[in-house]
Specification:
This protein is an alpha/beta fold. It folds into 2 domains: 319 residues, 3-Layer(aba) Sandwich (Rossmann fold), CATH 3.40.50.12780; 97 residues, GMP Synthetase, Chain A, domain 3. The chain is 27% helix and 26% strand. The chain has a 9-stranded mixed sheet with strand order 2-1-11-10-12-13-14-15-16. It has a 7-stranded mixed sheet with strand order 7-6-5-3-4-8-9. It has a 5-stranded antiparallel sheet with strand order 18-17-19-20-21, with no helix packed on it. A hairpin with a 2-residue loop joins strand 22 and strand 23. The longest helix has 17 residues. The structure holds adenosine monophosphate. The site of adenosine monophosphate has 21 residues, from strand 14, strand 20 and strand 21.
């Protein structure tokens, strides 16, 4: 027997309409590049977003066409978050931290037809625009002139009349795209679906996940160009929460000012954001008056237990979250189950420092050497996941992809234990990547570049724990006989190819790189050897 319930599509226009009709007076606050504060209402956002959708269709946007954004967290980026998919297009957020060559590859591979760019990010666009076939580029102005060949974003909006009907959108159509750095080869694209995004939004809004309501004031510091800013912008629009954006200013004082002045109740960012904020709060607590009930979501890299304790001492609840670009992205959250009531304080914090319990509909298993491992908090294995907002493939993948098992699970590349209560703890990573300040560095790419140096025979790059950036790269190098290569020369050589923050902080010269029995570099041996390494 079939259910007697309507087959109603789960698409983003429904969220936009709900927000526009019911939460019109709610506020959106954005810090501008010149540090001034821009305020608008949901009504305003709703009107402009529909204008954007209409204008894009008038400009010739066809279903499934990609529209890139190179933008900070701000109200116009939120317009694109909804305006592009509500026109039947696909929002492709470009990560402004990437090297120009990588951005060129990603935008070209995705086939971005139009681009929306913040004026102060034009220097980044200059580095790669000639290598991409953008048809039209719309600049969100902040006071300057529009370069020739580009157009004013507001002029695009002015072509719309306000008389607009959403095109028909299938819930399984793509609404957005994001690229993720691979261990080897080129970055890989994930195409999010409307259905996956809507279900993810319902899940993160739930009280025991992030818990968003129309009484909340949300400050997502996690960039909107990285993994949908953990779903916060769409969730805040659906919940009708006040939204606050940092713009380009995510330093401790700017963040604290917004948390204080706007009455933020829920905020989210990587540990690197929180370290200086915590320092400032410890140094001058009297300067800031934060809402005591403010919840802080920390994820993207492991949140140190000390950080969770420190915020807790100040009265704030930390929710440690884990997810992946391939998962829209949230997979687990470290919320306290009732079992916490029977734990000692130390046990509670040890558990809160784990990556958390899976969201409903995130099916997890731990694959050990002998098949699925028990949830005993001890047996390690690769975390594998499946669910309605988890990618089933990459967009036009190149080369060999082994990220999915034959029985349909996504292999996360994270090595974990799961305890009897379902709390996942990441213990290691099988993927050869370094996560520095929330963004990836490919060890393999840096190694390949190093081994392209005429005086370098072998090179391995490993992550070293770092207080501020959580991880930083160390290069282990074997030089050719007779070479007098210095660390500085190696770093300068890499500077020709990579963004500055990709360059290893130190170079260790050695006789040979330890190898496994099959002849591969044994990075575990290097990690053990340099476990207490002090970076300069
Ligand atoms: P991304 O796709 O860039 O969001 O990166 C996802 C990866 O970041 C995961 O597979 C983990 O390796 C790492 N990661 C994300 N959140 C956490 C966390 N809370 N603790 C430790 N690692 C994390």
């Amino acid at each position: 027997m079939r259910g007697t319930i309507m087959d109603y599509p789960l698409t983003l226009p429904t969220i936009l309409e709900h927000a526009g009709r019911l939460h019109g007076a709610q506020e959106i606050v954005s810090r501008q590049p010149d540090r001034s504060i821009h305020r608008c209402t949901f009504s305003n956002f709703y009107r402009r977003t529909r204008l954007l959708a209409e204008a894009l269709l008038k400009a010739g946007l066809k279903p499934g066409d990609r529209v890139g954004t190179l933008c900070w967290n701000n109200a116009t980026h939120l317009e694109a978050y909804f305006g592009v998919p509500c026109a039947g297009g696909v929002l492709h957020t470009l990560n402004l931290r990437l090297h120009a060559d990588e951005l060129a590859y990603i935008a070209q591979h995705a086939g971005d037809r139009f681009l929306i760019v913040d004026e102060d990010l034009l220097p980044i666009l200059d580095g790669f625009k000639d290598k991409v076939d953008f048809e039209r580029i719309f600049v969100v102005r902040s006071g300057g002139d529009i370069p020739s060949g580009m157009e004013d974003y507001d002029d695009l909006l002015a072509t719309a009349t306000g008389d607009f009907d959403y095109p028909t959108i299938d819930e399984n159509d793509a609404c957005g795209m994001c690229y993720t750095s691979g261990t080897t080869g080129k970055p890989k694209g994930v195409a999010y679906s409307h259905r996956g995004m809507v279900l993810h939004t319902f899940a993160v809004i739930a009280p025991d996940v992030f818990g968003l309501s129309m009484r909340d004031c949300i400050l997502p510091i996690v960039p909107m160009f990285h993994a949908n800013a953990w779903g916060m912008p769409v969730a805040a629009v659906m919940a009708g929460s006040k939204i606050v954006f940092t713009g380009p200013h995510a330093d401790a004082d700017s963040v604290l000012e917004l948390l204080d002045n706007e009455g933020v109740t829920l905020t989210a960012g990587v540990p690197t954001i929180w370290l200086p904020v915590l320092d400032a709060l410890k140094r001058q607590p009297q300067d800031w008056s934060l809402r005591p009930e403010m919840k802080i979501i920390i994820g993207g890299s492991a949140a140190p237990e000390s950080m969770i304790r420190d915020f807790n001492d100040m009265g704030h609840q930390v929710i440690h979250a884990w997810g992946m670009t391939e998962m829209t992205p949230v997979g687990t959250t470290g919320v306290p189950k009732p079992a916490f009531d029977n734990m000692t304080e130390d046990e509670q914090f040890t558990t809160l420092a784990k990556q958390g319990i899976p969201l409903p509909f995130v099916d997890i298993r731990v694959m050990g050497d002998d098949g699925p491992a028990p949830w005993d908090g001890e047996t390690m294995g690769e975390l594998q996941v499946r669910g309605p907002w988890i990618a089933s493939s990459y967009y036009k993948p190149e080369g060999t992809i082994d990220s999915w098992t034959d029985d349909g699970w996504f292999r996360t590349g994270d090595v974990v234990t799961v305890d009897a209560e379902g709390y996942v703890k990441i213990t290691d990573r099988t993927k050869d990547l370094i996560k520095s300040g929330g963004e990836w560095i490919s060890s393999v790419d840096v190694e390949n570049a190093l081994m392209g140096h005429p005086e370098i025979r072998e090179a391995a790059v490993i992550a070293i724990p770092h207080d501020r950036w959580i991880e930083r790269p160390l290069a282990c190098v074997v030089t050719e006989v007779g070479s007098a290569l210095t660390a500085e020369a190696v770093q300068a050589f890499l500077g020709e190819t990579f963004a500055k923050w990709w360059i290893p902080d130190a170079v260790e010269f050695m006789e040979e790189i330890p190898r496994t029995s099959t002849g591969k570099f044994q990075k575990t041996a290097l990690r053990t050897r340099f476990a207490d390494y002090k970076l300069p």
